[in-house]
Amino acid sequence: MALVSIAGCDEHSDHPGQTSAPAASQTSAGPAASASGQTSAGPAASASGQTSAGPAASASSQTSAPAASVGHCPEGMAWIAGGPFHMGSDSPEAAPEDRPRFETEVAGFCMDITEVTVDAYAACVKSGKCEAGENDRRFCNVRYPDRGDHPINCVTWYQSKAYCEAQGKRLPLESEWEFAARGGSEYRTYSWGNESPDGRTCWKHVGGSCKVRSYDPGAFGLYDMTGNVWEWVDDWFGELPWPPEHSQVKSYRGGSWSRRFEKWMSTRLRNRYGPKKWGSHLGFRCALTPKDVKCPFGRTEDQSRCQFGVKSMGCPAQESWNGVRCAREGEPECPEGRVKKPGHGCSFKEPVGGPAPEVESTPVTRSRSPEFDADCQQNKPGRPHSYRYVGGTHAKRNHVSAQAGCSNRDVGVGWNSTCCP
User: Fold this and answer.
1) Are 260 and 82 in contact (CB under 8 A)?
2) Which of 114, 254, 270, 419 is the most buried if burial means most Cβ atoms within 10 Å?
3) Residue of 357, 89, 354, 95 lying closest to 243 (CA atoms)
4) Is 34 exposed, middle or buried (0-12, 13-18, 19+ CB in 10 A)?
5) How far is Cα of residue 6 from the mean position of the Cα atoms in its chain?
6) pLDDT digit string, tens, across residues 308-361
7) What residues form DSSP beta bridges with 326?
8) CA dist., res. 48 & res. 371, Å (int)
9) What is the CA radius of gyration of the chain?
């Protein structure tokens, strides 16, 4: 996805993936921010890329976890108490990747209060434990000497994972990230509450990211869980409720400085990207599971965190939840060709390559969408007319529309909404 800023686009840009965002829409205004206090005990008051050379993580780069215990986290991290939590949706209007609704239980964990900064990442690179990120695009923060307190961006999933491991930490699970961002059972639309993002986060921002802590913290005293940069999480992207063992894309969450439409800022929105890809829209933060935390579904084999699990899920008529899937009475625990795997439900017995890559199955066509002309005139000077491109791949639509002098105003699965001369 082209990075939609008020005054331009980064050449390496957001990729839409198969996002669950609704159709293109106009921006909406909102009130100014209200204050919210920081806390480490519970939610605060409501107030693209190129391929990297490869993974940087190795056994020698991993560090023992810093001291932590239930309710007590290392400096710079907040305690997230965990608890029962619903994810997904039963709405027939929800995207397939966001169905079904299910219940999990998130164990308590520690989470970085801010996104990892340029300075913090640079220190890891200097120590030899991390690989330098990219710097050849205008919004990559390492290009600017005065952005040490901005989030590190233009790093791959592998580089992000290596950094966290070098600190004795890890990337958060997607379920942990969403629990923290939504204030647990408060189910907030945004990390601060349900009010408009205007004045409350770094979005629609000319010139790239903002300093971390530029806005009041949201749930659990965490900064920028909504906005500033999207954040890599640990899971491979797949259909709910179980994350796949392997896939071609990793999940990331949270919205970024480049977004202009509120749908992209929702704490429920899922997105994905290849683990060797990077972009100026994308950064990360780390998590940590104290050793004395009680894990409702047990611990992983390496004991580094609690295992993901599913407590219950709504099933179709004549089926019931058997602990890993919906099945009829008398059916096996997993269907033929699959086997139960902790944290992954019924996995294929043989490794699979994940979802098929996007293919150019249809030609790219365009049609006028004058209902968005006013938005183009306001936000894309010199491109006053809106056109909708469909067909082909995301990359092909970008190429065809760019040849016509157009710039993306929004994107979705199978379409680009553009502003053109």
Assistant:
1) no
2) 254
3) 354
4) middle
5) 22
6) 999 999 999 999 999 999 999 999 999 999 999 999 999 988 765 544 555 556
7) 321
8) 28
9) 21
The secondary structure of 58-123 as a DSSP string is: -GGG--PPPP-BTTB--TTEEEE--EEEEES---TTS-GGG---EEEEEPPEEEESSPPBHHHHHH
Structure-block tokens of residue 32: 């100014």
85 contacts 194 by C-beta, under 8 angstroms: no
Strand (E) or helix (H) holding 407? strand 407-412
Average pLDDT over residues 402-411: 94
Spatial CB neighbours of 136, under 8 Å, sequence gap ≥ 6: none
Name every residue whose Cβ is closer than 8 Å to that of residue 197 and which is 6 or more positions away in sequence: 30, 190, 203, 226, 227, 262, 265
User: Do the Cβ atoms of 12 and 50 come closer than 8 Å?
Assistant: yes
- 116 within 8 A of 284, measured Cβ to Cβ: yes
Element (H, E) at 86: strand 83-87
What pLDDT shows up at residue 273?
A: 93
Structure tokens at 209: 């990211």
Distance CA 405, CA 396 (A): 14
- Rama region for 35: left / alpha / beta (φ>0; ψ in -120 to 50; rest): beta
The SS3 call for residue 387 is strand
Chain centre distance of CA 244: 16
SS3 of residue 257 by DSSP: coil
Q: Whole-model pTM above 0.90?
A: no
Tokens coding 69: 């215990």
* Half-sphere exposure (Cβ direction) of 134: Cα atoms closer than 13 Å: 26
Cis peptide before 342 (omega within 30 of 0): no
**Could you tell me the CA-to-CA distances from 258 to 56, 117, 203, 281 in Å, in that order?**
28, 18, 6, 7
Q: Which of 383, 386, 410, 379 is nearest to 7 (CA)?
A: 379
Measured CA to CA in angstroms, residue 35 lies from 44, 45, 113 at distances of 10, 8, 17
- Residue 40 is encoded by which pair of tokens? 């480490």
Bridge pairing between strands 230-236 and 385-390:
unpaired
